[in-house]
């Protein structure tokens, strides 16, 4: 099961064979956001607080297109003599 903070590899699409960290998961739609993967341009309208313009941000990827890296299990500590 893929969780937030896990390292994953992309299996298909324009970012195939790239690696990144999961930053958000939508379990209902079976999708995840991965840092630096599936970047899209978002046009923002200017407001009093924020400047408008074109912003790049991550978009969701289907979880079936992700491969979870094996986590390194903690090695048991040696007994002190």
- Please, what is the average pLDDT? 89
Strand order of the largest sheet: 6-3-2-1-7
- Spell the H/E element sequence: EEEEEEE
How far from one another are the termini?
39 Å
Give the % helix: under 10%
Count every helix, treating DSSP H or I runs of 4 or more residues as helices.
0
Structural class: mainly beta
Q: What percent strand?
A: 35-45%
Unreliable spans are none
Give structural notes.
- The chain has strands at residues 7-10, 19-26, 31-34, 39-44, 53-58, 60-62, 66-68.
- It has 81 residues and is mainly β.
- It is 0% helix and 42% strand.
- The radius of gyration is 18 Å and the shape is elongated.
- Strands 6-3-2-1-7 form a 5-stranded antiparallel sheet, with no helix packed on it.
- A hairpin with an 8-residue loop joins β1 and β2 (19-26).
Brief write-up:
With 81 residues, the chain is mainly beta. It contains no helices and seven strands.
Question: Secondary-structure map with pairings?
Answer:
Elements: E1 7-10, E2 19-26, E3 31-34, E4 39-44, E5 53-58, E6 60-62, E7 66-68
Characteristics of this structure?
81 residues; five-stranded antiparallel beta sheet; mainly beta; 7 strands; two-stranded antiparallel ribbon; elongated
